[in-house]
Amino acid sequence: MSNLTGVAFMFTRLGEKNLATLHELVPNAVVMGALVNPNNPNAEPQARDLQAAARTLGLQLVILAAGNDREIDSIFATLRERQIEALLVTADGFFFGLQDKLATLAARHAVPTFYPLSDYVATGGLISYGANLSESWRQAGVYVGRIVKGAKPADLPVIQSAKFELVINLKAAKALGLTVPLTLQAAADEVIE
Fold this sequence. Notes:
The chain is an alpha/beta fold. It has nine helices and nine strands. Helix 2 links the parallel strand 2 (about 30-35) and strand 3.
């Protein structure tokens, strides 16, 4: 018996939707890359799920493993020769800490890149879909309050993030020569111009 509770951000379950959204944004791309951190226990299942989603979409997906800065630099330097036309960054704490660097490298190498959090887009990235972290932290705070007032953690179920957001940076899209479909713009929670 365990006393586990909390808020699940659902990042690892969004891969198929995120890959499909990236494909909608870059419909002519045939070869896409997925950046994963091999040090993350979720990397292998995420890669399997993304490969299955890519097959469904008729895409070739190249898994790109980077667990340190040097490997990230090396991957971006070889995207063109690997014929990778778009990139999906998976959710990982290591990558979250490098959001400015990842957005800068994606712009420098002119690769349309999809991110798991809106913070990447706020720093110049192209597009993201994922949990609204502010709302998720608020949900976690409510649980902390309930526990402080005497609730037993074992009695509180793990809940999923309640709010997800699609954010698009039109300035980044223009710099890449991309036209963002109106359907994506209409579905977006935020469009940065």
